[in-house]
Amino acid sequence: MFDSIGSTNDVALSRSAALAPDGAEGLIVVADAQTAGRGRRGHTWFSPPGSGVYVSVVVAPSRASDPRRATMIVTLAAGVAIAEGIEAGSGLPVTLKWPNDLQVGRRKVGGILAEGAVHGGGLNAVVLGYGINVRPAAYPPDLANRATSIEGELGRPADRRQLLIETLVTLGRRYDDLLAGRFDVILDAWRRRAPAASGARVISSGRTGITAGIDDDGALLVQTGDRIERVVGGEVEWL
After folding, report:
1. Dihedral (CA of 171, 74, 48, 157) sign
2. What residues pair up with 212 in beta bridges, in sequence order?
3. Can you give the pTM of this predicted structure?
4. 3-state secondary structure of 206
5. Cα–Cα distance between 199 and 112 in angstroms, integer?
6. Beta bridge partners of 102
7. Whose CA is closest to 130, among 221, 39, 62?
8. Pair 132, 109: CB distance under 8 Å
9. What structural domains does the chain harbor?
10. How many Å apart are CA 109 and CA 131, to the nearest integer?
11. Confidence band for 221, pLDDT divided at 50, 70 and 90
12. How far is CA 50 from each of CA 38, 54, 75, 223, rounded to the nearest angstrom?
């Protein structure tokens, strides 16, 4: 547990690299604040002191019964788990937006960043970083209309320690599903929490389309004209 660090993911990546893969698995880094928190594709994650839950956990999807699929859907599994943990710890219902956003309505209450950890020249582990906005904060102008917090939505206090505990518990359960190859259970749970995954207008690769769900590897399906395109790691603009 750190009072303030640059990024929990950076610490987890550094410490994981110094360990054997089996020793790195299960490593948890928690901070009260981050000075250089980040999201996908170089975006900044606003992490002021005392306002959120900022955690990174090292997992090893390469140990799963189907390592390829496990690695593909590990972020979706984490999304389901964190949403379940938020509800268990606060009572606030949370939806998911592909690939890594936790939302209330159209506002973001949390996010996930998965990064590969290298051991001995191979990709053996993944650092799952997640941030949850618990208390209202003075968000930067570019986030003010897109971010929300658990307490802001509930109108009452929420226990950050309880949210940390609950999210780690639910993450452990969904990680067990991942390792055991219960991918359909994970994907079905994700679909139930992701209404925008079907029927929403998006722009992908410069083309406007309609979301058509996710496939068995967790890729977003987008219908553009008479074609269905798979979106794996690209940026999607939601309209």
Report:
1. negative
2. 198
3. 0.93
4. coil
5. 24
6. 96, 110
7. 39
8. yes
9. 8-193 (3.30.930.10), 197-238 (2.30.30.100)
10. 8
11. very high
12. 17, 10, 26, 42
